[in-house]
Amino acid sequence: xxxxWRIVGSSELRDASDVDSxxxxxxxxxxxxxxxxxxxxxxxxxEALYRLDRRGxxxxxxxxxxxxxxxxxxxxxxxxxxxxxxxxxxxxxxxxFNDEFARxxxxxxxxxxxxxxxPSEAYEKIVGRKMESGSGFPIDxxxxxxxxxx
Length: 150
What we know:
Blueprint: H1 4-8, H2 16-31, H3 35-52, H4 55-58, E1 62-64, E2 67-69, H5 73-86, H6 88-96, H7 118-127
Antiparallel strand pairs: 1-2
């Protein structure tokens, strides 16, 4: 059984180097999993991203040098990836209180996009072919209809 949050771990994520470090650690933990475990991890990742897909989080503006801009769909996806990389406690707090997400509405979280590819990269190294995309949870912004009703 895959313990998703134990594999993810937790990280401060104050800047781009923290994101890179968290991704490197996670990559190392994924490298020792078997193919089935990687598929389950990928499915849990999609579920976690889906649960964060909420209007209240998407509407938090990005702060860049004292100016604010709306999040793009991509920015919102990367910010959700960063929230997951921060760990289970931060993720749970974000689900309870939208304002916890504001720290991820920053340009440096673009680097967190790599989280989307780590499980399939590890899988391909082991199996020699790409991981089949599960039919589970969609990760596109606005796909969690319930989360956008608020």
